[in-house]
Design goal:
Blueprint: E1 3-8, H1 12-27, E2 31-32, E3 41-46, H2 51-67, E4 72-77, H3 79-82, H4 84-90, E5 95-96, H5 105-112, H6 114-122, E6 129-131, E7 137-139, E8 153-159, H7 170-174, E9 178-179, H8 182-194, E10 199-204, H9 220-228, E11 235-238, H10 248-256, E12 263-265, H11 273-279, H12 285-298, E13 303-310, H13 317-330, E14 334-339, H14 358-381, E15 387-395, E16 402-406, E17 412-416, E18 425-434, E19 437-440
Parallel strand pairs: 1-2, 1-3, 3-4, 4-5, 8-10, 10-11, 12-13, 13-14, 17-19
Antiparallel strand pairs: 6-7, 8-9, 15-16, 15-18, 16-17, 18-19
Helix pairs in contact: 5-6, 8-9, 13-14
Length: about 450
């Protein structure tokens, strides 16, 4: 039997894309190689959101060749769109597949590879059944039918972005916003729930833009209305959503839904209006904070997580302190901190503003991280002593006695039990904050 191995870098959308590719190969009769075993095909799904992502992607390409010396190495994802020469330098024999062709990777391999031509002739492509790692039969008709290694399933309903933030390369490599038909979204969600998934994370590059490219247009609220009717689906979560895309209607939906999780990831990037304007973020610090207050009033206990970009060209101490004040005002559960990374072909790369020294970026990053940890502690302490439902996602790594999961407002919880709690909803009393998680009983 032919074997395949997958390497994924970057966002939830990329993780979803890898799962879709995985199912292509499983339909073709491949098995997945694990635990250091070499494979005959390696698929690397790359990321290019930052300079570090570029470096990690190229390292992974070289690592795949090193670990699988005789494999066909297929490189796809965002790095292939504008930086193919870098990939070719890292692995001259790699096969590159652009983002728009991800869905055809398996067929392209069979079409152009002599090595697999005979295999293609002897393997009948089964378009209706997939054998998962657990040997269960799963039905599929586009999209995905399970999510390897996860108790929560990501469901990508949108790709691309029409916003043009000055620092961001993603619109250049993902293209304009494109939504998945609502009927297909519902069919895919039903399939995932039938296969045991109780929480679905709606994912996209610019999730809030869902449906605007349809005529007549649709929106996220309509997606939620359809998914709420699926029996067995307990939770619906958003991966990330821009502040501009959170309407009063969506806030009402969050406030009254029995399945939408009380958690929104809303990128801030900067808390200074001058920097936000240079970033082309199209909102002010005050507008962002007013939105957060409105959400907290409408949805008690809601968790806000966010992104902060540190060291944008021209960022001085005053700009940075405004960001510090904004983060403190939000009291986020979690902050993803990104040191500014110059991206070729973006307008920020052409700014005449003075670049912030790397040492100062590291210092500011450490400052934001400390503030974020204090905010997270403050937020979590509000829920100590409360009894809340926790969806258990698996054992804590390297232990047999502890299980981990999340509350609907995204607090990570550890529970001690010698019973099998996998994928169960457990009503737990939150006892104490222990670093990045809360102990419960």
């Amino acid at each position: 039997m032919k074997t395949v191995k997958f390497y994924t870098l970057g966002c939830k959308a990329n993780q979803y894309d890898t799962q879709e590719i995985r199912e292509q190969f499983l339909r073709a009769g491949f098995s997945e190689a694990y635990n250091g075993c070499s494979a005959q095909v390696c698929v690397i799904n790359t990321c290019t959101v930052t300079g570090k992502a570029d470096a990690d992607s190229l390292y992974t390409v070289r690592r795949a060749r090193r670990e699988n010396p005789r494999a066909k190495v297929i490189v796809t994802g965002c790095l292939t769109e504008l930086d193919a020469p870098m990939i070719r330098k890292a692995e001259p024999l790699s096969i590159m597949v652009r983002n728009k062709d991800k869905k055809t990777i398996a067929n392209r391999l069979f079409r152009y590879s002599r090595l697999f031509r005979r295999f293609r002739q002897t393997t009948k492509m089964n378009q209706t059944n997939i054998t998962s790692p657990t040997n269960q039969r799963r039905q599929t008709n586009g999209g995905i039918s399970f999510f390897e290694g996860h108790t929560r399933a990501f469901l990508k309903i949108q790709d691309g972005c029409n916003y043009c933030c000055s620092y961001c390369k993603v619109p250049l490599v993902r293209g304009r916003s494109c939504s998945k038909p609502l009927r297909a979204v519902v069919q895919e969600a039903r399939r995932l729930v039938a296969n045991g998934y109780k929480e679905i994370v709606l994912t996209g590059i610019c999730l809030g833009a869902y449906g605007r490219d349809f005529k007549p247009s649709k929106n996220l609220g309509q997606v939620i209305e359809e998914l709420e009717d699926i029996e067995g689906l307990l939770r619906i979560r958003f991966s990330s959503i821009e502040a501009k895309d959170i309407s009063q209607g969506l806030i009402k939906k969050l406030a009254h839904s029995k399945k939408l999780c009380r958690h929104l990831h809303i990128p801030l990037q900067s808390g200074d209006d001058e920097i936000l304007k240079k970033m082309r973020r199209h909102y002010t610090r005050q507008q962002f904070l007013v939105l957060v207050r409105r959400l907290k009033r409408a949805i008690p206990g809601i968790a806000i997580t966010t992104d902060v970009l540190v060291g944008f060209p021209g960022e001085n101490d005053r700009h940075f302190q405004n960001t510090v004040k904004a983060v403190k005002g939000i009291v986020p559960l979690q902050v993803h901190i990104f040191p500014y990374s110059r991206r070729e072909d973006t307008s920020a790369a052409c700014l005449e503003s003075e670049e912030v020294p790397r040492a100062l970026i590291r210092e500011r990053t450490a400052c934001i991280r400390a503030i974020a940890e204090a905010c997270a502690l403050r937020y979590k302490k509000r829920f100590l002593g409360k009894v809340v439902p926790v969806l258990i996602e698996g054992r804590v790594k390297d232990t047999l006695a502890y299980w981990e999961g999340h509350t609907d407002n995204y607090i990570k919880v550890y529970v001690k039990s010698h019973r099998d709690l996998d994928n169960q909803t457990l009503w737990s009393t939150l006892k104490s904050v222990q670093g990045g998680y809360v102990m419960a009983s």
